Amino acid sequence: MESSSSHTYVFNPESPTELARLINQDQMLTQSMGGPFSGLPDTFSLHNILDLGCGSGGWVLDAALALPQAKVKGVDISHIMVDYANARAQTQQLSNASFSIMDISGPLDFPDAGFDLVNARALFAVLKREIWPSFLKECWRMLRPGGFLRLTEPLDVGHTSSAAVNRLGALCTQAISQNGYGFAPDGTFFGVAHLMAHWLQEQGYQHIHKQAHPLDFSAHADPWANQYHNIEVLYYQLKPLIVKMGLIADFAFDRLQQQALADMQREDFFALSFSLTVIGQKQGR
Ligand SMILES: C[S@@+](CC[C@H](N)C(=O)[O-])C[C@H]1O[C@@H](n2cnc3c(N)ncnc32)[C@H](O)[C@@H]1O
């Protein structure tokens, strides 16, 4: 069994606060993306499905509910995430969904050509930049010919009408980049989404499809409450790292965060972010 002490996540994967954040984020993302399979040409051919770095398991559960004939597996390094996800599979009586512990930054304990779909979402602060090439090779190896790889990553933290929210977002992005994640040359964005189609093309995937997902989290929009919680928890968790790196003083961070949360509660708070899904099909049948 893997120990989450070997994790490469920018957050503590065993934190209950992070579990709660991911439960919220997961619902918000799947909704903004138009469901678990958006962008795939069809779902008839999907019998064995794998989700890498599955977090609280929402994507796997949605996929298992939508496709009762398919077996859907999620793997994650965090015991708390996997236990929660398995408990939810049980309460939802989804016997075709299962979750286990696995470190996705190394070789994966699955046979060659065993999956029709490999899905991975929001790994920009999970996989250090030198890990992406071997991770992509593992995805290719595990897919059967004709199977699909589906990657979804946010471009950045988004753009808002609040200078404080934007400044916190910039600090967070810079801290993540300076700690070895993503390929942004200047640390101003997460630096994964813009390369995904190129990576899939280089690996020999065919029928590469790109789909952008806007997330409007303005004060009047439905995702606002989830994103408010997400931002509150995200910045709280990243504060020690950001302060330790000397990007901002402790008291200045607290003032900025208070201002950001106050701004988000204003009627005239407007905000937009984008994620990108890229899907490729492994050649052959
Ligand atoms: C941002 S969350 C993504 C959650 C999920 N994919 C989603 O879209 O809701 C990142 C997840 O990666 C997991 N993780 C971090 N390092 C990992 C590793 N080396 N191997 C497997 N999972 C890891 C964390 O525990 C966390 O659940």
What does this structure look like?
The protein is an alpha/beta fold. The chain has helices spanning 16-32, 58-66, 79-91, 132-142, 163-178, 196-203, 224-244, 250-264, and strands at 48-52, 71-76, 97-101, 115-121, 143-154, 159-160, 206-216, 271-281. It has one domain (4-281): Rossmann fold, CATH 3.40.50. Helices cover 39% and strands 21% of the residues. Strands 1, 2, 3, 4, 5, 6, 7 and 8 form an eight-stranded mixed beta sheet that branches. Helix 2 (58-66) links the parallel strand 1 and strand 2. The two termini are 34 Å apart. The mean pLDDT is 94. The structure holds S-adenosylmethionine. S-adenosylmethionine is lined by residues 7-9, 13, 22, 25-26, 29, 53-55, 58-59, 76-78, 81, 103-105, 121-122, 126. InterPro entries: Methyltransf_25 (IPR041698), SAM-dependent_MTases_sf (IPR029063).
CATH superfamily: Vaccinia Virus protein VP39
Low-confidence stretches: none
Q: What characteristic shape results from the CA principal axes? A: globular
Computed Rg: 19 Å
**Which percent band covers the strand fraction?**
15-25%
The CATH class designation is: Alpha Beta
Number of helices: 8
The CATH topology turns out to be Rossmann fold
- DSSP, total strands: 8
Mean pLDDT over the residues: 94
CA-to-CA gap between the ends?
Answer: 34 Å
Number of domains: 1
Oligomer: single chain
* Major pleated sheet: 8 strands, mixed
Helical fraction equals 25-40%
Class by helix and strand content? Answer: alpha/beta
The helix/strand series, from N terminus to C terminus, equals HEHEHEEHEEHHEHHE
Tell me what the CATH architecture is: 3-Layer(aba) Sandwich
Q: Give the distinct bound molecules.
A: S-adenosylmethionine
